[in-house]
Write a structure and sequence with these properties.
Layout: E1 2-8, E2 16-21, E3 26-33, E4 45-49, H1 50-53, H2 57-68, E5 73-84, E6 90-97, H3 100-147
Antiparallel strand pairs: 1-6, 2-3, 2-5, 3-4, 5-6
C-alpha cells in the first residue's frame, strides 16, 4: 500500500475507487464507492495526469513509477484525509495497491468496520433525537396537568 496525495478541485468521498493507467499515467475515479460495482462496471471520470495533480511532484512521481512498472494499472481508494487549500483546491489522500485483489484484501474489512461505525453513529443520533422528543412530550403533559 502506498499513500499518494493529489490536488483536486472536486471532492472524492471516502472509499471512492481511483486508478492510474500505466501507459499514459492518467488518473481516473469512479462516481461510486469501490465495493458497489465490479471494476468493469464503474464509470470512469478523468481527474488528470499524475504529474499534474500530484502534490509533492518528485516523491509522488517516483512512487507512481515504482508501482506502475510491474503492472498496467494500479488501484486505489480515497481516504477521509482531505484538506481544503486555496482556490477551492483540495488535497486528497489516496491509498494505492498494485493489484485489485490486494486493494480488496485491505478495503473490504476496513469498510465493513467503517460502515458499522457509521450505522452506529446514525442510530445514536436517532436515539438521542427520540429521547429528546419523549422528554419534551413528558414536559408538555406535565404542564397540561398543572393547568388543569
Amino acid at each position: 500500500m502506498k499513500k499518494l496525495t493529489f490536488n483536486l478541485r472536486e471532492d472524492l468521498p471516502h472509499g471512492t475507487l481511483v486508478w492510474i493507467n500505466a501507459s499514459n499515467k492518467k488518473i481516473y475515479c469512479s462516481s461510486k464507492r469501490f465495493d458497489k460495482l465490479a471494476f468493469n462496471e464503474h464509470a470512469s471520470n478523468y481527474l488528470g495526469k499524475a504529474e499534474d495533480i500530484c502534490s509533492m511532484k518528485s516523491n509522488q512521481d517516483m512512487l507512481v513509477d515504482s508501482l506502475l512498472e510491474k503492472t498496467n494499472r494500479i488501484y486505489g481508494i480515497s481516504s477521509n484525509e482531505q484538506v481544503e487549500k486555496s482556490d477551492s483546491v483540495k488535497e486528497v489522500v489516496v491509498l494505492f495497491f498494485p493489484t485489485w485483489e490486494e486493494m480488496l484484501q485491505y478495503a473490504v474489512p476496513y469498510f465493513e468496520d467503517y460502515d458499522q461505525q457509521e450505522k452506529y453513529e446514525q442510530e445514536e443520533i436517532k436515539r438521542k433525537k427520540q429521547a429528546k422528543q419523549e422528554w419534551l412530550e413528558r414536559g408538555r403533559r406535565h404542564l397540561q396537568k398543572e393547568k388543569e
